[in-house]
Structure formats: C-alpha cells, structure tokens
Amino acid sequence: METQNASFRTSLYSSFHSIQIPQNHLFSILSKPDSPKWVSLKTHCSFSSAALLANSKTQSQNINKKLECKGASDIEDDNPKPKIRRKNLAIFVSGGGSNFRSIHEATLNGSVHGDVVVLVTNKQDCGGAEYARDSRIPVIVFPKKKDEQKSFSAEDLVNTLRSFKVDFILLAGYLKLIPVELVRAYPKSILNIHPSLLPAFGGKGFYGMNVHKAVIASGARYSGPTIHYVDEEYDTGRILAQRVVPVLANDTAEELAAWVLHEEHILYADVAAALCEERIVWREDGVPLIRAKENPNDYL
Ligand code: GRF
C-alpha cells in the first residue's frame, strides 16, 4: 500500500512543477492551463510548493519598490555580488532532531552559508542533543528543571546566545514557549517549523501526531510543513515558506507524518540557505518573502 501511495504521491508532486495560479492569489494548487485568467509561475527546483507569488515582471517590479530587506546594506543586485558574512545559527530541539541534522549537514556541505554554533534543548538526553554532542556542537539546557531555574534565566540565555554571536534561531521541534525576552532580543530572526499548512491545524494542542490525525480527520486533501517567524504566541507569526503534501484517501497519520517530515528537511535547509544569504525581504504589509536565488526579481 505504501509503495502505491508513494508512486501516486510522487506523480502528484511532479504535476506541481508547472504551477499555474489565478492572478493576485498567493495559494493555488489546481491548474487551468487554458484559462486567460490564470498566469504561469516558474517554480524553483527546491521550492515547488504552491506558496509562490505571481512572478510576472510587472508584479515583481512593483513588489520590489515596496520591500524592505533585513541586512539590505550588504546586498546589491548588480554583479559582482558583495561577499556575504557567514551566519551563526542556534537550533532549538526537544526530540529526535532530524531537522537539526538536515540543517547541520547543509552547513557542512556548503549549501547553507552558515554554521550551527549552539544547540538549545529542554531535554538534555534527546536525540538532537546527542547528535550535537557527537558533532562537538555546544549544548545548552533551557529551561532548566524547576529547582535549578534561578541559576539560568531567560536573560542568561539571551546573553549566552549573544556570546556565541548568534544571528538566527531556528526552532526544530522545540516544545517550550520561547521566552519573551528572547523574542524581543532577536526581532525577525527566530523561525519555527510546524508540520501543517498554517494557519490550519496550529496553536495549542497541535503538535506531533495530533496534527496529522486532525488533518486526516478533517478531510483536508493537502497538508505540508510551514516555516514561520516566531512571536509571543504559539504558531501565529508571519508565514515565510510552505511545501504541499497531498493527503491520500488511505493515509494513516504515521504515513502522512513521514511524508511531511521528508518535506520539512528540504524546506528548512532551503530557508536556512535563504536566511544566511540575506534573501528574506519584507513586504509593506509585513509579510516576509524569499528572494529567489536564480532571479532577484522572483519571490518564493
Ligand atoms: C517536526 O515535525 C516539526 O514540524 C515539529 O516537530 C517535529 C520535529 O522533528 N515542530 P525532528 O525532531 O526534527 O525530527
């Protein structure tokens, strides 16, 4: 059954490579090639999800006028490109840490222009923490157990991350609320990955397998990971990137979780690459977009 599902899902994926979306719509799956109301979108090999902005030249130019780019002083579109500083990443985990591994591997193989300089976990024996120790990445336990909490406060965490010169914080299955001190110390610099297409199936209680069970029970035909900025609530920050996974009629929560996790690894490494290359731009209304690597006038 899984093999059949796999090939069906793969054929659905391949149909996403030439997505067409209605003008002015950010999200669409179905393509209607013959309709004049639909515009073709070029997709980029690693971002084949529907979370794409229409890329007609006029639209891109209009968008360009209104975008603010974090670290923009370091970037120019004209060649030769200025050298971009390698970024320092902190990763937060509570579990197995497969996303952490995928990002770490991407830093080692050169596809992410940054380094994982510290791992933060609330569970010092979790798989992610073990992997960090094996890879000689410093591990910080936060929050500490109740009786030790006074010994390492949220301010201490901020100061420690600053001492590692952390540029970006990537939450990858970290199950504790991020202290407000940290959110304020790192504005527009903390990301989280969630295993559903937010804003659906997010918020309190939606974690782990609960998410996938709820997706299947709802009858939703598509799911997939979302990467979003972190604010002071659960799963409410601005969406930065998504990938779409079809939900098949006979999917179990475990099967869907495995497909979504597979997409998470690709998406988080791609987003980490964009962050480290300073390709995030902020639309006037506060929505973050990713500037395509191949063409700075396209957004993902
Ligand atoms: C992922 O499904 C992620 O979406 C969620 O927690 C899980 C972490 O998995 N936030 P792993 O520890 O990276 O394997």
Automatic annotation (TrEMBL):
The protein's matches in CDD domains, at most eight in alphabetical order, are given as: FMT_core_GART
What is catalyzed by this enzyme?
A: N(1)-(5-phospho-beta-D-ribosyl)glycinamide + (6R)-10-formyltetrahydrofolate = N(2)-formyl-N(1)-(5-phospho-beta-D-ribosyl)glycinamide + (6S)-5,6,7,8-tetrahydrofolate + H(+)
Q: In which pathway does it act?
A: Purine metabolism; IMP biosynthesis via de novo pathway; N(2)-formyl-N(1)-(5-phospho-D-ribosyl)glycinamide from N(1)-(5-phospho-D-ribosyl)glycinamide (10-formyl THF route): step 1/1
Keywords (alphabetical) are:
Chloroplast, Plastid, Purine biosynthesis, Transferase, Transit peptide
Please name the PROSITE patterns in this protein's record: GART
This entry's Gene Ontology molecular function terms read: phosphoribosylglycinamide formyltransferase activity
Q: Which residues form the Formyl transferase N-terminal domain?
A: 87-271
Keyword Transferase on this protein? yes
Q: Give me any GO biological process, just one.
A: purine nucleotide biosynthetic process
Gene3D superfamilies listed in its UniProt record: Formyl transferase, N-terminal domain (3.40.50.170)
Pfam families under this entry? Answer: Formyl_trans_N
Q: Where in the cell is it found?
A: Plastid, Chloroplast
Keyword flag Oxidoreductase: no
Main localization (coarse): plastid
For this record, the Gene Ontology CC terms, alphabetical, are: chloroplast
Q: List the SUPFAM superfamilies.
A: Formyltransferase
Its Enzyme Commission number(s) read 2.1.2.2
Tell me which family the UniProt entry assigns to this protein: Belongs to the GART family.
Q: Which NCBIfam families match?
A: PurN
Listed name of the protein: Phosphoribosylglycinamide formyltransferase, chloroplastic
Native source species: Castilleja foliolosa
Q: What is the lineage of its organism?
A: Eukaryota, Viridiplantae, Streptophyta, Embryophyta, Tracheophyta
